[in-house]
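We emphasize that the prediction below concerns an isolated chain of 372 residues; any contacts that depend on oligomerization or on bound cofactors are therefore not represented. The input was used exactly as deposited, without trimming of termini.
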Amino acid sequence: MRRRTGVGEHKRGVPFWRDVRVLKVLAQIVFVILVLAVVIGALSNYLGRGLTFSFSFLNQEASFDLAEGIEFSPTDTYARAFLVGVINTIRVAGLGIIFATFLGLVTGVARLSDNWLVSKIASFYIEIIRNTPLLVQLFFLYFAVILKLPNIRDAIVLPGRIFISNRGIVLPWLRPTVSFGRWLPFLISALIVAVMLLIVRKRGLLRKGHPSFSLLWVGVPLLSIPLLGWLLISGNPMLLHLPEIVTTPGGVTKIEGGVSLSSEFTALLLGLVVYTGAYIAEVVRAGILSVPLGQTEAARAQGFTKGQILRLIILPQALRVIIPPLISQYLNLTKNSSLAIGIAFLDLYAVSQTMLNQSGRVVEVFLLIMAS
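Result of the prediction step, given as a token string:
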């Protein structure tokens, strides 16, 4: 006869070795113990060889020169050298993200164009770039394109005094003057007013279902307030420096003025933009295709143009699909910048490699790389 369990009778629990919650906690404890054992073992071996673990070497003289980035001399410290590598990586990654996003957006939209030629050109670009290793592309751009350009004496001059040679690209550049400090409050005020207008516009959109005013009005203070400050203060807060070719008394020809982008920086930036732009194009295409076709048909029925449909209907809804993989592509671009060592660009990894060889601090340098 089967025994029935009463309501108040104690039920026997699951043994702890079969409880999933207990097993998860035990697994985490075991993992932490293993990590600590590895760290302690590594430190004991490190110290057992007579080595010391310290970051004090960062205050020592580097005794090597860096030709790329902010001002640096061999008498500067290792910390300054590492900062140069970090800034170089941020420069190429920041510009690469901006240009790759624009290129990927245009190519992704072109991939879905009704124009057969435009669609095929975009498809050809995506397939070729995605199926070619990035390092091969960097080698091709640097050795077969950039270094084959004319020398400085015969540099290609584009409109706007832009010089292109095998030494890189030199662009006109705005540089602040002594009056820039008095003009800076006008810039900050313009940004504050523009942000306030954006907040007001967003609240109107949430309250009424449509924005209270056009987005173009946000740009009015961004232009008018700095222009007013430029007219009120004495002197020009910024001057445009135009590059020009000069020959020194020793017969050395060089370009002075403007801002110079080295041949290594140019090749790396171009390679990262072209390579990552192809992947972003596929991300954009997938996001656009995720929007139901009925949205486009409804917008056409309302009389929207193709540009309005894309800008107001399709892209805003596609962003929820685009943003997560887009962030991954940004991270990939930043990590791929370490391939710069193949074309002698002094990024974070290349500078760290020099620091490692010079100081012998292997563990400390790699920890700095991981932390950055």
